[in-house]
Structures are given as structure tokens and as C-alpha cells.
């Protein structure tokens, strides 16, 4: 039976690409009275299972009563969380005026931006476009620690970031990666489908994770030793002749030098470093090398270690020497969709002066994902991919975050005085949280563009409400990684005073003299421009396409070569050599444990109900995981007096945080796992910055030079020393009272 109201305003559905996490699943949003009321799976059997409980919570997130809807201007001391409501126009006028003054006094490099493509879905490259026109190279993002840096490092070996052909592969190797039904859901479903086809799954993880429990082989390595493990695999593969010698002869350079380096890692040494039996190491290497099509998917673990550059390079080298590059069931060098302009095409990287690019923080010290390396790759990218600048997963032209926060806090090598953060809870998203806090407190202007009041937003001068993915049209393109286009329709109206990132950057640019470079008046015009190479408008695309992908094209390198200086796969990297680094991969030991700090702490692990620092205020999700937890082995808990469900304090030389203990037999003894991104929105007004320092893993990890990967400046999140001691619950905490 229908009510009169429902008859007059019936429900209808449209297609959206979800950005609550970084996967980008396409599903259907049910709308009534300009309000999202429900999320449904896709009708396609191939896509219907790609939905998790974060995605189904979109109505509770997008319609949340605490969502920001009006621009706010700080009226109290920074961080006091005192505001007055102002109009969007006033906010933009004042922001433009204050930013102009800072740039005039300190130079354009004094302006830095941190953003997240996952939360904002896309900026259409307008953030970098604005910064390049202004002359600031200091753009950072969480992708510097997660996928974006992996994309940049992969390009050193073969000029692209490959995408695994999971639909056809016969062997899947997961380095610490643990896709589950409600986390990395499409990847989980593809792995399950591969298992059903008979594919072998090898997991390398200190934990007995959900993937490890089902794996054909589990190598329970010591945290932070991925590079050594890969060198051990290569030792087996090369010694036993399991490599593809013809491909190496025709398409690789540096094989003899690589072999000499690999010989430095006999299996006895690798066993000692990793803690894994040498016979098991050899067995895994043989299975991978002998598979007819094998993949090593990107992992959020290998890209966060003290040997990150080497470990990522070793993954790329394993793909190449076993003949798994750009073949069926291997790792695909897809390129971009031929009918689409990428974000990099709109970013105007040629506009910023070379001397300004050279001021990018990290350019000299940790250059791998900065402009410095991108400049070296330009002619080779253009030769193979037809683009001088290709910003895969937003990670190929970044500043180094640690160097940016040092400049913000201490003015070294020059001061940064204005900081914008869009869809990025900066305070909890990078290592050495106390330094990040000091850096933010030292700014003359902070602007936050958000949908909720985060601890970072509480430190801002202006907080502007953003829109969400159901409130804007988009075409998702996997951030330049693959060549798939997926439709995301606008299904409801945004709040009247909310702005998209397109609107924010366009309005700021026009106020600061760049109007001619921002000619588009609405988002659909931008999408028309991006689709122009295909001869379609967005309206035409939306009326005919839900998802499309260019047909596979294998072994393209036979026509074009690889986008490297040699035109071949560089097992010995000429770019790393020219930059002054070791051109061959190596294992570098992380900080050692001691009697005082006996645990190996690995952080950055996400929990199913949350993505990064988000969703702690969404009751339907938070009730699935009400409190942060430290995961420890029963033997460790018994020795240190730790009781399951009771509070403990985790201490490192950098800082300390608290959480409840979770005793898990699947943990490797001597290790403690710490979930990422914890704060307590329900304590806003009673605990400073809503408990941002109580349980955040970002407090624990040092970014001192000796703890950083040399080439990228990535901190060692996986296996740094710590100790656990029982403690009382933190003062001011009460039972969870979140609704929704």
C-alpha cells in the first residue's frame, strides 16, 4: 500500500561510484524527496557483490545531523573550536585576500595543500592547476604513504604502474594485504573467484590474517622484511633457472648486476632476517615462478617500510624476470582510456617554472615521487604514453610530507605559512603527529574543506562544507591507474552553502587572477571537456554507458618499448643511479627492538567499518568497532599482564597511545598490530581536539631521518620498537552514545 506522499514523490535510483573508501565500487542510490534513502547493489551479477557495509551506510553519512552545511570562521584561539557562521562568498573573499598577502610576503612556495582523492572523489586536477599557476609545488596527500608512492616507484622499472589481471591469473601473492568482504571488497571477490578457478594464493604476513587462513601457503615473516623476502625469492628463481631468459635478454637491462646483488642474499641469510624457514621461502618462489600467469597486487604494507623503494622495485622486478608483465593473467600496463583526459592532462605542470619545481620540499633529499624524477621521465612517458606528465594515483609529482611539516613548523629550508586541507584529516594522517600539530599551530592561514568537523578542521581558520559523491556527477577512471571509465550520477542536491572541490578551486582561482585558466562554469562542462577526445558529452555518456574499458592489448612494449631511459625494463635503475642512490634493490634493517621496547609495532591497518580516519561518528558503523584495539599474541599478553578487553598503553620512543587489548592467537609473537586513524567525535567539547592524541597510531611512528626510506622519505610503519603496559581507561571517556 502506498501513501499519498509516496505516490506524489516516488523513489527512483541512479548510479553512483562510492568514495567512502578508495576502491570506487559502482552501485545504485535510491532517492526520494531529494534525499538518499537506501543503497542497493548493482544489477550486474559481476558487480552486485561489490558492496560493503560502509557503502550501504552512505545515507547515514550523507544525511548525518552533524554534517557541515554552512561555512565557519574561527573566532577563538586556534584549536578552541569556537566559530561564527558566514556566507560562502565572504569566506572565499577573505581566503583569497589572506592567501594573496601571504604569497606576496613569502613567495608562492609558502602555500601547501594536503588532499585525499578518495574522500573528494576528484579535483579534476584543479588543485594542482591552481598551485602550478600560482607557483607552489608543495602538494601532498596520503597517497604518499599508500599506492601513490608505489605508482611512482614502479615507473622507475618499466615506466608504468601495472594493474593485476586477477580475472585470469593462476597465482596471487599477497604481501601483507588482507582483502575481505567489507574491505577492498572487489579485490576480495576477484581473489575468491580465482580460488574457485583453482588459482594458488600465497600470503606473506606476520599475522594469520583472514587471507592467510585460506592461503595455499603462508609465510609468517617478521614485519618490515619484505625486501629481504623478495631477494630470497629471486635467489631461488635465478639459481634454479625459473626466470624468463628470453624476455630478460630482449627487454631488460642490468641483469648481471641484479644477479650479483641477489647472490648477497642466500636463503640462510633471508631466513635469519625474515624468520621464515628457507624451505618454505623456496617453495613459495617456485610456485610463483612456475605459474602460468601470476600477480603481486599492490599492497598497503610494502609501501610503508624503511626499505619501501627497494621492496616495491623488487615486486616489479619479480614480475618482469618471470615473464608476468603485460600478459594474460599477469600485470597489465593498461595505459589510459583513449577517449578521456586524465587529471594530469588538466594540471598544467608545464606552467610552473622549473626553479619553482626545484623548490618542492623533498626534491633534493627524497626525490623519487617528486617533480625531480617526473622531469627525468618526461620524454620517455611522452614517447610511450603520449603524455609528458602522467600522475598515476595522484602520486607522481608530490612533495614529501615530512619535509613539508618541518617547513611549516620550523621554517626550514623556507617557511610555509598557508595550508589548505581538503577531504583529508591531516593531523591523524601522517607520522609524527605532534610535529604535524606544531606545524598547523604555526600557520597564518588554514582552510579545511570537509563534510564533518574533524580534529584537523578544529585547527582551521575557515571550515567550508564539502559535497559528497551522491551530490555531484563524475566519471571515475581509477586515478589514471587503469583505463576503465565508470559513471557516477548526481542523485541529490548538495547543501546550499556546500561546494565541490571543482567549485572551491574555480572560485578561488577567479578571485586571484586566474579566471582565463578556469573557464568552466559547472561540473558538467568539465566532464564534457574531459570526454572531448571521444567525441561525446557527459550527457551522451550518461545516457549510454555505465562502465566501459578499452579492450586488452598485450605486450605493447614490442611496439613502443618501455617508458624508461633505456626503453627497457631497468633491473638496475638508471634514474636512481643518476639521483645518487643505489641503483639495485637492497634490504635495510629497521630500528631494533630491545629489553625496554620488545615489541615490533605495525600500524596503518584499517578496520572494516572505517576508512582511514573517517566514520567514527557514524553510529551504524562505529557500533561494529566501538573502541580501538591492540592485537597481541596470548604468550605476550600472559607475560606482560595484558587482559583481553582491558585498556593498555603502547609506548614508543616517539610517543604513547591507549587502546583496549585484543588477545589473538593468529598474531605473531613479539608483534603488536595497531589500527589506523582513531579519534573520538563523541568527546568533542569535553576532550581536546576530540581525543585526537589518545589512540591515534600517527603519534607512535617517528619520521626522524634514520627511520625514513632513503629514496622516498617514507617512514617505517611496519615493525618499529614499542612496549605495552596495562593502564586505566582514559579520563573523560564514557560509553558510546552515537546515534544513526
UniProtKB/TrEMBL annotation:
InterPro entries: Asp_de-COase-like_dom_sf (IPR009010), MoPterin_dinucl-bd_dom (IPR006657), Mopterin_OxRdtase (IPR006656), Mopterin_OxRdtase_4Fe-4S_dom (IPR006963), Prok_Mopterin_Oxidored (IPR050612). Residues 11-66 form the 4Fe-4S Mo/W bis-MGD-type domain. The keyword Iron applies. PROSITE patterns: 4FE4S_MOW_BIS_MGD. One of its GO terms (molecular function) is oxidoreductase activity. It comes from freshwater metagenome. Belongs to the prokaryotic molybdopterin-containing oxidoreductase family. Keywords: Iron, Iron-sulfur, Metal-binding. This is Unannotated protein.
